[in-house]
Amino acid sequence: MKKKSILELDRLSTEQYQQVDKLSFVVVLDNVRSLNNIGSVFRTSDAFLVEEIYLCGITATPPHTDIHKTALGAENSVKWSYFADTVEAVDKLHSLGYTVYSIEQVVNSIPLHTIQLQKGHKYAVILGNEVKGVQQVVVDKCDGCIEIPQYGTKHSLNVSVTAGLVIWDFFKKLKL
């Protein structure tokens, strides 16, 4: 097998990308502190046509060299908005008709692999702080919580890994 060259990948320009139909899917970062995690979420969101990223609380915003280090320019292609308060972001999403899920370990959470999504419906997912997770006040405002089942000794995944798994799963269910 021969690896494809960058030209053979036939990627969209930033301008072309901004014109492509996106999923009705918003990713919300609730007080994510790592600039590398933020950049990774931008890059994954670009790859799977996320409509927008909401950056909330202490979550840094572009332009920033450390976000760019992992986003590799996706911070320029993916639309984003900043909210000082994540609850305000959830309220806006609800007013726009989105079903909002926290990615969090709670009683009666929905395992990611079992969640049923409807094509054409609007969804948002909230990813939380690397130590504290999604704020309880935010969890309380959501329509439900999704949990990624884990079988090892650790009780959580890195937020950028979690984002990758969740975004890919939503993309498969909503686009493919």
Low-confidence region ranges: none
CATH class: Alpha Beta
Please identify the structural class as seen in this structure. Answer: alpha/beta
Q: Tell me the radius of gyration.
A: 16 Å
Order of helices and strands: HEHEHHEHEEEHEH
Q: Major beta sheet, specifics?
A: 7 strands, parallel
Instruction: Report the end-to-end length measured between terminal Cα atoms.
Output: 26 Å
Please identify, by name, the CATH architecture: 3-Layer(aba) Sandwich
Continuous helix count: 7
Measured as a percent range, the helix fraction is 25-40%
CATH fold topology: Alpha/beta knot
Number of structural domains: 1
- Adjacency order of strands in the biggest sheet: 3-2-1-6-4-7-5
